[in-house]
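Give me the fold.
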Amino acid sequence: MRNSFNTAGFSEVVHEIRNDPAEAAFRYSAEAQSSPYRGLSAKIGPALFGTVKSARRFSVELRDVSDAPGAEGPLPMHLALTGVASCALTTLVGGGSAQSVVFESADMDIAWDGGAVTSRIDVGGVPDDETVAELVGQVEQFSPNYTTLTRPVPVALRYGPDAAPAHTATTEGAPATGRPAACRVRWISGTQLASVPLDQEPGDQAPGDQEPGGELRVDAPKQLTGVDWGPNPQEYLLMGLAADVASHLGRIARELTGRAVTWRVTVRGTEDVGGLLQADPSAVVQLQDMECAVSDAAGLSGAELEKAAAAAWAASEVRYLIEAAPAVRLASHRVESCPA
């Protein structure tokens, strides 16, 4: 088991998928709440891993996008970037482990500047630059979240009592107002990683919770050989979208109506792990069937709800990342091994 990466366990998942393609559909959900009393928070929802139901519990308290710079806690964009980078590193280490590569380290810095994403993977222990280039190429081809970033993925927006789709087409143009965000994701062992916003310092956190200013812990579910140390990369990306939309809803509703109300947003998406594991050459690698549902807010008319939802959707930078496939730059660097 190289790099504490359970390649035998992944081989078993591949075998199950080839015997029953339904086992490849991993369905995730995440929910965010923007409250005038409790602030902004996000949590993962129930998941379906193939035919196995899972009800894990992880949550994170967030900084609202309208908070002044310097406020405590990660932004919704930090969750989304964590999801992209941790998925990329998991793909890189998993691919290398299958090729008998032993890693000393693997880190990824990723940044959003309001219109484009820049990232860099630093890899230690890999013997040559050609191997690094090959592994990064696998990331660009087989990482579900990274390919979601580079290929436009439509997200259906639903709101109102009947929750009918209000928007199903890709929205063009970056949001007018944005806030830069960046984080550094560090591979620890196996499928465990840790992410820190680059303007935050790590802190202690209670089991199951991720406190403001602390590391964001990432892990695969047990069905993908993890130990449930934290949400998985896909769940981070979904939490980021839900929290970003919820945060903008709170701000926009206050501007439109002068009232502060609580908003709940649920995001769902499907991953075909047959693409990640290369078990099915025809599998779609990027996330699919994505939808964002906005619950009714107390005291708002149908017209106010529609206006607030449309404006929050247009303002969401995480939505833009997923739907519009903005410019993405990925660099890599091989870190020389320290002499014994």
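Helices lie at 7-19, 76-98, 129-142, 144-150, 233-257, 273-276, 302-315, 317-324.
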